[in-house]
Design goal:
The chain has two domains: 179 residues, Up-down Bundle (Growth Hormone, Chain: A), CATH 1.20.1250; 183 residues, Growth Hormone, Chain: A, CATH 1.20.1250.20. By secondary structure, it is an all-alpha fold. The C terminus is likely disordered. Helix 12 packs antiparallel against helix 13. The protein has a two-stranded antiparallel sheet.
Length: 408
Amino acid sequence: MRERSALTASRVVFAASGVLVASWTSRIPQASAHLGLSPAQLGAVLFTQAAGGIVAAPLAGMVVSRVGTRKATLLSGLVLGTGLACATCGTAVSLMLTVVGLVVFGAGVGVGDVAMSVHVAALEQRTNRSLLPQAYGWFGLGSVAGAAGGAARAAGGVTPLPHLLVVAVLAAGSITVASRFYLRSKPPSTRSPRASLAAAPPRSRTAIALACIAAAFAVAESAGSNWIGVSITRDHAEPALTAGIAYGCLVGTVTLVRLVMPLLLRNLQLTTVLRASTLVGILGVVLVSVAATPALQFVAAVVWGAGVALGIPTALQLAGRDPRLAAARISTVTTAMYIAYLAAPPAIGFLAGSVPTPVALLVVIPLLGAAAALTGMRGLARPVRVTDPRRPTPEHRLDGPKTLIVDD
């Protein structure tokens, strides 16, 4: 019963986080107009949000290890709400307030991602179910709801200030309330050698490999989201509507696969899922590069989305298997993921300045190939020793996974 309540709470937190991020993103054009920003200035302002996440994510592992997932998620909800409120008020007051708000908002996203993932990873170990991909699917559903709400408010002439303030209060409030239903976590004692190991920065080959795998899939997902539409309109001279439908096909497929496929692939090893995802992703990239008609472009977007959907959640699942190292490893994977998300769009754009966009997108193939090769690394899918969940050890109480893995 407690696991079920905790799982429901995790879904609420993921969905609310998606609503917060997508609501702000959907109102960026209006916010930029209110501040009078040029495209270059807007890019610099938006970079501060990503910078906040990149700085916070490496520290989030230490925070989660010290205070537990419940308090860390509560903290992230408060920070997210405060950051969005400040950024929104800044659109009517001053640019500096918006910048400060976005830094705080990005930091809240970074801490929240790690705390949410560590909690769901613990639930996976307790219930022996694949839950992280579905959790990210709930984030996708929240993003769709946030984007739809933003579009509706914009169409109705509602300014960003009242809309986003209401979202900040409701969504951030939902996170703080839902975190109360998380499994209770007792912060590890600093005198415990295992606690010290959990709080220490991960330096193992496994952590580095998982970070590289997550980064490769982050590049693939970001490149698809940002550049498939551009490729369709610029290189194939299709209307913006076709590009919008293709983007919807990709995002919708990512969300659907994360919600449904873990139920169908529950008997497969996680490394097998990663290898299959890389192959499908490579196929999607190839199809995008050769698709010449709208119908083929839609199919290519669906295949691309199916390939990248499970990559990051599965890497996080592998990172969270060892309860002693879950917070630190997930923090490392999340940091790599953020950096890749940030770097991929401009890198693809730089290449697309010299070659056609479909050709520039082919750079994703060797990255996914490298990720597939890393899945065969020794120790990445090491079998776990399962203890009786009805008799938890002192190190694995209510919020602790019921597995123990010897680190490489």
